[in-house]
Design a protein that fits this description.
Elements lengths: L1 H15 L3 E4 L6 H8 L5 E4 L3 H15 L3 E5 L3 H4 L2 H10 L3 E7 L26 E2 L12 H13 L8 E6 L41 E5 L5 H9 L3 E4 L10 H5 L2 H6 L4 E5 L6 H10 L3 E4 L14 E3 L14 H20 L9 H15 L2 E4 L3 H9 L7 E3 L9 H9 L3 E7 H6 L14 E8 L11 H4 L2 H9 L6 H7 L3 E5 L2 H11 L4 E8 L3 H22 L1
Parallel strand pairs: 1-2, 1-3, 3-4, 4-6, 5-6, 7-8, 7-9, 9-10, 10-11, 12-13, 12-14, 14-15, 15-17, 16-17
Helix pairs in contact: 1-2, 1-6, 3-5, 3-14, 12-13, 12-19
Length: 547
């Protein structure tokens, strides 16, 4: 009966569109593992570290835009998933978590590998289901249960996100499935999500100066529509086709004053730029949230109006001031040209330069780009050119946990470039154990080696605390040889120090299957702060001289 229950769940999820299952080995989850392995429609990714596996699943869900199942056994294995579910919750990524559990009679009596898994993830999941041990008289409900979990994960009622099924199993755990409860004819899903309305939001722009701030969740087509309407699109690191270099531009007070918009439209998540957030508050113009691309981030509480739907290129009332848009894009192009004029192949690397090169190479190779938290995501957002390939980042709760596994999940069966810091690499080094797995693919991990937590050097802690205390609590340098670590896992690795070396190493790695690790040696964290400041001053002086 348990085998039939598990087989029914996966049959219904396959009908709905499931294609990937991430499995952590364990005894109690045997019926689920066997049911998933029996279906040729599914790609099974077996990961021995459940925490890493959950972040790998998150990467697969990002790359495929469909729910990925995560199946684990009981006990601490289930607890290992929590961090990834917090990220999936904040980033609205659909994950379908199935934790195997001991039956009720084994709880509270000292049975091994038993913990309270009821509502284990709290409010981090959109739906919690606990059907109990499978019973023949409940077989009629199994497809509805599976469908309910799928539809909730895909966001039929609210935003997409993780869901949790805690399924109890009794011994014997091995068994063969019998006839499944009947499903819809022709393999149709039990229930399907209603069609998304294509109604255009009623938003009157009528030639105004419009800035559109976009973040995670807003796809390339929506951004292209905004640009066609002459909206100035300022986006986070994941935004394909948004205007680059807006952060250094907005650090210029004169530019920010002249370029004050009449209206701001927000879609999706929030960019990392504090400068942009400050200017939005200072400008004090109406801020409209367009909700057709999902939940709209408003951490500063400046949204004055929410509107359903998405912009439509055919709506004349939504067309903005083309001269205003042209002035922004002209200024951005000028910054790009200036930055390129400062670089030569023999230049020693710095962190903004690494970000610029990696973004260029991802676009040239059409490889997905996955950007780590802290400084990489900021350097991509502020200093890199436009993203021309799919770009992802764990910006739900912005942690460094699991980023390497997310990179691997996006790259599995495809081609991807990950840009991460040295601490991010070390934090999730266990993700390298299973690598890309049987899905194969090509993954290039570019690790910015600045000897610790670079972002903290930009914060007040660096100025207030003494060097020794700052290094102990925030810089946290680690002495490990990153090249040796990568090679210990069986991967190709090299260190680079110049612009040409980085390009050559990444281009070569992109032609080879498997995982390659490129260690980019950059100046000290203190010097990095100086480099950022000098770049901003140079741009400001150049703009001042041209006025």
């Amino acid at each position: 009966m348990q085998a039939t229950f598990a087989a029914t769940l996966f049959d219904e999820w396959i009908r709905s569109g499931m294609r990937d299952v991430v499995l952590g080995p364990g005894s109690r989850s045997t019926p689920l593992a066997l049911a998933a392995a029996a279906r040729s429609e599914l790609t099974l990714h077996v990961r021995i570290d459940e925490r890493s596996g959950a972040f790998f699943a998150l990467g697969r869900a990002l790359a495929t835009s469909r729910p990925v199942a995560v199946v684990v056994t009981s006990g601490t294995a289930a607890a290992e998933l929590h961090a990834a579910l917090c990220e999936a919750d904040g980033a609205c990524v659909p994950l379908l978590v199935v934790t195997a559990d001991r039956p009720p009679e084994l709880h509270g009596v000292g049975a091994p590998q038993t913990t309270d898994q009821r509502h284990l993830y709290g409010s981090a999941v959109r739906l919690y289901e606990e059907p109990g041990v499978a019973r023949p008289d409940a077989a009629w409900s199994w497809r509805a249960l599976a469908s309910r979990l799928w539809l909730t994960a895909t966001g039929v009622a609210n935003s997409p996100g993780p869901v949790h099924l805690n399924a109890a199993f009794i011994e014997p755990l091995l068994g063969a499935a019998t006839a499944l409860p009947p499903g819809r004819t022709n393999g149709a899903a039990w229930r399907t999500a209603p069609a998304t309305e294509s109604a255009t939001a009623s938003l009157d722009v009528n030639g105004a100066r419009v800035i559109c701030v976009v973040g995670a969740g807003v796809d390339q087509k929506v951004i292209a529509t905004c640009r066609d309407l002459d909206w100035v699109v300022l986006g986070d690191a994941t935004a394909q086709g948004a205007l680059p270099y807006y952060d250094p531009l907005l650090r210029d007070d004169d530019f920010a004053a002249v370029q004050r918009p009449d209206m701001v439209v927000r879609m999706g998540g929030a960019p990392a730029s504090k400068v942009l957030a400050t200017r939005l508050r200072e400008w004090g113009v109406p801020v409209v949230a367009l909700e057709g691309a999902g939940a709209v981030a408003d951490p500063d509480g400046i949204v004055s109006r929410s509107v359903a739907g998405l912009p439509s290129a055919g709506a004349s009332s939504m067309r903005a001031d083309p001269a205003y848009a042209a002035s922004w894009y002209g200024a951005s192009q000028s910054v790009g040209e200036f930055l390129r004029s400062l670089e030569s192949d023999d230049d020693e690397l710095n962190e903004p330069m690494v970000a610029r090169i990696v973004v260029e190479l991802s676009g040239e190779s059409n490889a997905a780009l996955i950007v780590g938290s802290s400084m990489p995501v900021r350097d991509v957002e502020w200093w890199a050119g436009p993203r021309r390939s799919p770009t992802y980042a764990n910006r739900g709760v912005n942690g460094i946990d699991g980023v390497v596994s997310t990179v691997l999940g996006v790259s599995a069966g495809a081609k991807g470039i990950g840009l991460v810091g040295d601490l991010t690499f070390l934090h999730d080094v266990s993700g390298l154990v299973d690598g890309l797995g049987p899905a194969q693919g090509t993954c290039v991990l570019v690790v910015v080696d600045n000897g610790g937590g670079g972002i903290f050097s930009f914060l007040p802690q660096a100025d207030v605390l003494g060097p020794e205390k700052f290094e102990q609590l925030f810089g946290t340098p680690r002495p490990h040889d990153l090249e040796a670590i990568a090679r210990a896992f069986g991967y190709t690795s090299c260190a680079v120090a110049t612009r040409s070396e980085l390009r050559t190493a990444v281009e070569k790695a992109l032609t080879e299957p498997g995982v390659s690790v490129v260690i980019a040696s950059v100046p000290s964290r203190e010097r990095n702060v100086e480099i950022h400041g000098a770049m901003v001053r140079s741009l400001s002086n150049r703009r001042g001289a041209s006025r």
